[in-house]
Structure formats: C-alpha cells, structure tokens
Design brief:
The chain is α/β, with parallel strands linked by helices and 265 residues long. It is built from eight helices and ten strands. α2 packs parallel to α5.
Amino acid sequence: MKVPALEVKQIALSFREKKKTLPVLKDISLTVQKGEFISIVGPSGSGKSSLFQIIGGLLDPGAGSVHMDGEVVTGERGHISYMPQQPALFPWRTIIDNIKLSSEVAPRMHAEKSGKITQEDIHHWIKQAGLEGFEEAYPHMLSGGMQQRAAFVRALLSPQELMLLDEPFSALDALTRSEMQEWLLGIWEQYRRSVLFITHNIEEALLLSDRIYVFSGRPSTVLHEVQVPFPRPRQERITEDPEFLALKREISGLLRAEKEQSRLL
C-alpha cells in the first residue's frame, strides 16, 4: 500500500471570538498521494487557508492529526513548500536572489537535499519560467504573472516534497491567469511534485487536478470528493468538452445548494 505524501485525519478547528466559540473546520480528512495534484474548492471564509496553516504547523488543530510520508507531523514546521496568493518576493532582492532563498532557509532536516540544488538548476528553472534575462531585475520591474512565476520556481526549488498553493492566481487578470494555468500545467507535468491547491475557480480546479475536495461553508466539512477523469497532459481546450462542462455544473450545483442551505439556517 502506497504511503501518501500527506494525510489529514479528522481535523477540527475553532476560534474564540468575544467569549464565543467560532467553529471553523469540522472532521476534515483528505489525502495527497505522491505526485498528485489535489485541489480544494469551497465558499469564501470556509477555513481553507486555516487548514493550510495547520498542515504547515502554524496552527494547532483542536482535534485530528497531520501525517506526511506516514509520520505524524502535527504542529511541526518545515515540512512543506508554500506559495501564497501574493508573490511575497522581497523587494530588495533580485529575482535570482529571491529564487535562491528557498535553499538558503531550508530547515536542517532537508539540508542534504537542498545542497543538491546547483546554480545550473536555478538557471534551468529560470529559463523554464520564461524569466531568462530578468535574473538581476527587482520584483517591481516585473509583471504580476512574471512575479508569480518567480515565486513558483522558488517554491519548486525548495527541498520539501509537498507544495501548498493558496489561490496563487487569484489576483491576476483573466488572460494572465489563463496563461499561468497553462504554464503551471506544463511545469507540473515535468516535475510532478505533490500539490495541494486552493482555488475558488471550479474550471481551474478541473483543468489542473487529479482529484478535487469540495468544502462546505463554515464549519467546513468535505461535501464531496471528485475524481477528475481527463487524461494528461491536458490543454485548455478540454474546458469545452461536454464531460468537463457537466462536472463543472455538478460542482457548482453542490456549492450553490450548500450556500442556500447555509442561508436558511
């Protein structure tokens, strides 16, 4: 039996707010197999980013556990590579120095692996990202899409196997977002890192993912797990396929029904 890259077991989380308890996550369980691309979709404010903080060891869950490669890592930091909604590049560092940062700050437990990242590796991925010639540029000199590509390469070159991507394309315009999706598909096909991806965009989730977890509103539970049936490699034209459109309607219907139910409670 294969050991998952990530296994989240019955996670619960609540916050205290003005002497009240605010439930955020309820009995969340999910897995990411090695080399799998998994997406989470759900309503705004449903605790998806809080789940990422728990997986990354920044928040302690009220119940449940986090496992990576079969080991319990609940509350431990340094096991994941993380890419937030904004590129989070240091403005005083050049693009190449921002990309090098992942290996510079790698935890000791990953030191042996991080040491294998060479200048040749870094320049290879800069070229793959379409950033060749911009190595000595500063972040403000690049477009939003180029900044996100630099941030993704930095995450990709970190020594951790599991990547958590928290709506990395949400701030981009529609055309740039489409270009970034196509670019990410191509890069991921080559590298096949284990990815857990948050998005509000159902089409984006279907285009990129092997499986999708659909979350309810707060307190979040897993409403449904969708197995994405489309073969890889994928291209954007798959979004016009009748089966693709039917799955998109199914997931949209689940979220609309959940929103309506929450409104009535």
